[in-house]
Structures are given as structure tokens and as C-alpha cells.
Amino acid sequence: VRVPYVYRHDRLSLLARSTPDFEGGEQMLEENSVGDVEAAARYQLTSGRGGWPVLVANTRVKSPTGISPYSVPFDEMGVATGLATGSGFWSVEGGVTAIYPSEPAIIFAGLTYLHNFARDIDKQIGGARVGRVDPGDSIGAQVGFGLSLNPRFSVSLGYSHNYIFRTKTEIADTTQKSRSLQIGSMLMGWSFRLSDRITLNNSFEFGVTNEAPDLRVVFRAPYRF
Questions:
Q1: DSSP letter assigned to residue 50
Q2: 51 in helix, strand or coil?
């Protein structure tokens, strides 16, 4: 189970106009709230004997508990004056991961498919009625390796790529489609085992495609029951 707490601080720039709310065409937006709560499960399919990789099936369900992009306030021009902390949609993901040990390293590769469930927004935004929104599904792939430097500390390096299909949005009496996205990132990280139950993880993602974030840093402290 993953329960994220999200803090966002964005700067919104509007070059076309300046209003009291957007003095000089800019406004600082800030939000902190619980994000989208997730539940995931994994099951090992093969033992990895006979020179074959270990195969692990995984599934994940994400709830829309965070602030939806359609729940934030908008001005009369349809520009958001608040920040979202979640996607606003239910999602379910399935996939398989292959792990091949080659001491002191392991090689891993994975393939996933994420399905987002459509829903009716039914909200007036910027003078237009937004109806049913069908977020694009995505296909993801990941490959890399982890290297154990000692029994407690390891480092990893890899690459992750996601293809996101078009989102369909009903606006007034028309259906608008966004363009598809290519999200590619180089992955670096380290892991330190504090005890048999607690491990510290730190990962870095460097975007290599136009749509990917330039940099994403994640800290985790998983607890094993």
C-alpha cells in the first residue's frame, strides 16, 4: 500500500494578459494534500532454476483520492488557479518483471500496461462544458541492472520508457483528442538495508524525451512485515 503526501509549488506565467490575480502575468501556486492512494501485489511465477530468469507478475490499483485536475478552481478564461495532487481517475495496471542474477549484479526487465477508467466531469470550465473524459492508457517498459557492493548497500542503473495514448475529452458537442506522449527517463539509484525489515531507497530519473520531467528525485523507506 502506498499513501503519498504531495507538496507542489508551481509558477504560472501568462504572457497574453495581466490581471490583479496574475500581477505581471505570473502567479505562484501552492498546494499540499494526500495524493492518489495505491495498492499493489506481486507473485513470483518461476524459481529461476536451470539458468532461466525469475518471472514476477505484478498488479496495481490506484484510487482518485488526491485533488483532481478538474476539481481545482478556474478563472473565467479556463486557467487553473489551483494545483492538483492526483490524477482524478481510477487506474489499474498489470505487468511482468524478469530478474536474472549474475552475481554480484542482477539484470532486470519489465513490461506493464496501465488502464485509466473514463468518467463524466460535467463541469463548466472557461465558458465550455467539459463532459466525459477518457484518459489515455499507457504501455511501459524498463530495463537495467542492480549491483551489490556489499551485503547491505547496492546501486542500480536503468532506462524506463512509457508510451501514453491520446486522451479523449468531450467539450461542448465535440470530442477533442490530445496527442500521444513519449516519456523516457534514465534511472539511477541506491539502496541501503538498515535492518531485516527497513530499507532506505533513493532514486533519480533524468528525462531524455521532450515530454519527460527534467529531473525527478524519490526517497522511500519500505517496511517488510
A1: G
A2: helix
